[in-house]
């Protein structure tokens, strides 16, 4: 089985930064790529804060923190991913954007490099079709926040080769994650249920049934969920929720997957969630969740 | 002591609770299956800080009446959330109307919190907060199980690990009662007219087998 030593993470947003932490923490040399230097700076700053907190909580030693940071290397040029044995993509949920990225990566990366998409709603087969290496392509959907959550939904596309899937599965386990095989269906398992559930919570706010804090308190106290849906939406980002809705509703046409109007109004007002300092709640600073 | 009027068979407080021991003597708590009907027998309660009426699946307005969006007084509704046959949770859904007394709401929150409970305030709508949110999700999970998305255990495992839920939907419904889920979601389907609340096949089967 092919061995993976160097990992590329394409996209230094919330998900990409979390995946990069998982990869470096597991001992892989990790190149975090983003053409926006400020996004990389923010990801590295948040990573430092998260790891420092992990040390405080006794989850990591100072030496492990230093090793992890040493393994994490910024890359502002796609050419730097030529060294990667596997590239995990975590960019916007837009098929054209992903096709463009993988098309470029296909020219840069060696033949053996496995491509993985962290998409949460788009079809792996459709993304892979734009990569020109759909036999070496898998879905690896990490959960938010990736640096804390163990589950990874692993999906083969229609043309994914058996050896590629086996290698990716073993790689996922080597990351210290828990892979679960899912079909290449819209939203896989998690988002098929989560996106409409979160939309329903937004609709309760829209309809004046309850305030966000009351909805979150009810769900956490009544059902024992670790986060309320509106807190979670602020973490995911309202702009991301819109994309998730468009992707899921575009395929399933299920009414609960349609984006509630309030989301679009909040995006227009710049209330994107934690990343903009205001969503359903207000925030100070851009500290990473768990940091 | 809090004045408790118990009409029997309370789902929120099936046994004696710390609430019964609290000293606030200006609040009336009406418990039990017939709590709403008992409201009419209390006489003039307008001088009380709050009168808290335990609700089933009905709206508070059924008992207080409504006045074109201007309804509201010191009478509030409440229910402790519980799924099926499980014990009541720590959560009280406190039901207000558009013109409910802020003083009554504050007093009710203080009372329930002093009893060790958590309070979420919501409007007077069918399903309040939790049932309104979870029943479509449970129906979807049951339908996807029928459609072969994944096995019940894989679906539950994914939702537990991926979202940190204490239990997956299938195991939870089997533990707390699919037939009870049918009753709640059927009532919401009738009240809201939204197909997402239409009982999933497995819930209907469980209901039909009830008592066999």
List keywords for this structure.
heterodimer; A: 291 residues; alpha/beta; Rossmann fold; N-(1-d-carboxylethyl)-l-norvaline Dehydrogenase, domain 2; 2 domains; eight-stranded mixed beta sheet; 11 helices; 46% helix; globular; B: 212 residues; six-stranded mixed beta sheet; 8 helices; elongated
Description:
The complex is a heterodimer of chains A (291) and B (212). Chain A is of the alpha/beta class. Chain A has two domains: 176 residues, 3-Layer(aba) Sandwich (Rossmann fold), CATH 3.40.50.720; 86 residues, N-(1-d-carboxylethyl)-l-norvaline Dehydrogenase, domain 2. Chain A contains eleven helices and eight strands. Chain A has an eight-stranded mixed beta sheet with strand order 3-2-1-4-5-6-7-8. Chain A is globular and about 55 Å long. Chain B has 212 residues and is of the alpha/beta class. Chain B has two domains: 120 residues, NAD(P)-binding Rossmann-like Domain (Rossmann fold); 79 residues, N-(1-d-carboxylethyl)-l-norvaline Dehydrogenase, domain 2, CATH 1.10.1040. Chain B has a six-stranded mixed beta sheet with strand order 1-2-3-4-5-6. In chain B, helix 4 crosses helix 7 and helix 7 packs across helix 8. The longest helix of chain B has 18 residues. The radius of gyration of chain B is 19 Å and the shape is elongated. Chain B starts with a strand and ends with a helix. The relative contact order of chain B is 0.11. The mean pLDDT of chain B is 94. Classes of the chains: A alpha/beta (291), B alpha/beta (212).
């Amino acid at each position: 089985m092919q061995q993976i030593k160097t990992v590329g993470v394409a996209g230094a947003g919330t998900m990409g930064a979390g995946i990069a932490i998982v990869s470096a923490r597991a001992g892989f040399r990790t190149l975090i790529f983003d053409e926006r230097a400020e996004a990389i700076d923010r990801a590295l700053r948040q990573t430092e804060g998260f790891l420092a907190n992990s040390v405080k909580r006794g989850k990591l030693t100072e030496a492990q923190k230093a090793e992890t940071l040493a393994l994490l290397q910024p890359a502002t040029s796609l050419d730097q991913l030529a060294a990667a044995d596997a590239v995990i993509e975590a960019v916007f949920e837009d098929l054209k954007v992903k096709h463009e990225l993988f098309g470029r990566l296909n020219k840069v990366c060696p033949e053996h490099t496995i491509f993985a998409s962290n998409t949460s709603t788009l079809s792996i087969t459709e993304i892979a079709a734009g990569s020109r290496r759909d036999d070496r392509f898998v879905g690896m959907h990490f959960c938010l926040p990736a640096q804390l959550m163990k589950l990874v939904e692993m999906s083969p596309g229609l043309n994914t080769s058996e050896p590629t899937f086996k290698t990716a599965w073993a790689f996922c386990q080597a990351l210290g994650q828990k892979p679960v095989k899912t079909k290449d269906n819209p939203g896989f398992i998690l988002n098929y249920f989560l996106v409409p559930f979160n939309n329903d919570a937004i609709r309760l706010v829209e309809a004046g049934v309850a305030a966000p804090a009351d909805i979150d308190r009810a769900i956490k106290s009544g059902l024992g969920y670790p986060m309320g849906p509106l807190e979670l939406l602020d973490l995911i980002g309202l702009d991301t929720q819109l994309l998730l809705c468009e992707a899921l509703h575009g395929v399933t046409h299920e009414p609960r997957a349609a984006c509630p109007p309030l989301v679009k109004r909040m995006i227009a007002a710049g209330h994107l969630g934690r990343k903009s300092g205001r969503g359903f709640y207000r925030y100070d600073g851009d500290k990473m969740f768990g940091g | 002591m809090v004045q408790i009027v118990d009409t029997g068979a309370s789902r929120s407080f099936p046994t004696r609770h710390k609430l019964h021991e609290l000293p606030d003597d200006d609040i009336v708590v009406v418990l039990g299956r017939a709590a709403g009907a008992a409201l009419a027998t209390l006489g003039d309660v307008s001088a009380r800080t709050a009168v808290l009426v335990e609700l089933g699946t009905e709206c508070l307005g059924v008992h207080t009446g409504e006045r074109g969006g201007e309804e509201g007084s010191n009478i509030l509704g409440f229910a402790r959330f519980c799924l099926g046959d499980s014990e009541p949770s720590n959560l009280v859904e406190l039901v207000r109307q558009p013109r409910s007394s802020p003083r009554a709401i504050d007093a009710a929150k203080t009372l329930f919190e002093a009893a060790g409970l958590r309070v979420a305030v919501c409007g007077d709508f069918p399903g309040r907060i939790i049932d309104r949110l979870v029943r479509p999700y449970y129906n979807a999970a049951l339908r996807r199980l029928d459609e072969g998305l994944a096995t019940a255990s894989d679906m539950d495992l994914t939702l537990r690990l991926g979202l940190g839920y204490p239990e997956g939907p299938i195991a939870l419904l089997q533990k707390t009662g699919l037939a009870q889920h049918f009753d709640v979601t059927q009532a919401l389907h009738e009240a809201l007219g939204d197909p997402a609340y239409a009982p999933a096949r497995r819930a209907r089967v469980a209901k039909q087998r009830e008592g066999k």
